[in-house]
Design a protein that fits this description.
The chain is about 35% helix and about 20% strand. It is an alpha/beta fold. It has a single domain, classed as Rossmann fold, CATH 3.40.50. Helix 3 packs across helix 5. The protein is globular.
């Protein structure tokens, strides 16, 4: 995104807002599974742009819904709009605070099993939330960014020291495209699993159900958002970080670089 002129960034902001307000199809609501109030296994997904957190056209929402179906109530799995980082943060704190004394003890922090992922602005918020948790010494097992686009004043390329592993999926084309490389603030504490590049100029795909703006103006940015190959790999990575007793036992494939 930093290669995109400021004018295009502003244009994207306003056009995305207009399209989000004008979408004809109503979102499909997700029924939240009942979870324990103190569940410490948490998967947080951030949607991009001005997408509603319950609009199941989008892959982040679809993945959250799929994970909920396959995992027991002990895991908290939720989608958030990217402007609601603080809500996600407060929910994480609430669930870690098992004795409800208003503070997160060192033991409660050590027991945290948190995965954060997102697309576009949601991918950037993934890093911002991890950084906010870093300030309290709360560890994050894994962050996953899909075509990460930073908001003004954000830095989504440097992964904070409280993150164990980080992965970046991106595509390089179009007026809106993701960061091509992320790096660890401290390589001794954070492993960058990889920066995986996808080329939709060479291998275009159709994104059914998306607004015309997404399919035409930011075509390749949308293609990585609806590419099942990408999101199957995202799901595999999330599975790898969940406790064995809640992990699906089906065979999985490791992410592969195109």
């Amino acid at each position: 995104m930093r290669c995109t002129p400021a004018l295009l960034r502003v244009l994207y902001f306003f056009l995305s807002a207009a399209v989000a307000c004008a979408e004809a199809d109503p979102p499909v609501l997700i029924t939240t599974t009942q979870t324990s109030a103190d569940a410490q296994t948490m998967v947080i997904g951030f949607v991009g742009g001005f997408v509603k957190r319950d609009n199941s056209v989008h892959s982040t929402v679809q993945l959250v819904r799929h994970l909920r179906k396959r995992y027991p109530a002990s895991a908290y799995i939720e989608a958030f709009e990217n402007r609601h980082r603080d809500k996600a943060y407060q929910e994480i704190r609430r669930r870690l605070d098992r004795n409800h004394d208003g503070t997160i003890s060192s033991v409660e922090k050590q027991n945290a099993r948190i995965v954060i992922f997102g697309h576009s602005w949601g991918a950037s918020e993934t890093v911002m939330l991890a950084r906010k948790l870093e300030q309290e010494g709360i560890p994050v097992l894994l962050t996953i960014q899909v075509d990460s686009v930073s908001k003004i004043g954000q830095n989504d390329t440097v992964i904070p020291t409280n993150v164990g592993e980080a992965v970046n999926f991106y595509q390089p084309h179009g007026i809106i495209h993701g960061e091509s490389a992320i790096r660890a603030a401290d390589p001794a504490r954070t492993q960058i699993v990889g920066n995986f590049r996808f080329d939709y100029k060479a291998n275009p795909i159709r994104c059914e159900g998306y607004p015309w703006f997404d399919r035409v103006v930011v075509k390749t940015h949308t293609e990585i958002e609806c590419d099942p190959k990408v999101w199957n790999q995202v799901e595999t990575l999330i599975y790898s970080k969940l406790p064995p007793e809640t992990r699906d036992t089906a065979a999985r494939q490791e992410p592969t670089q195109e």
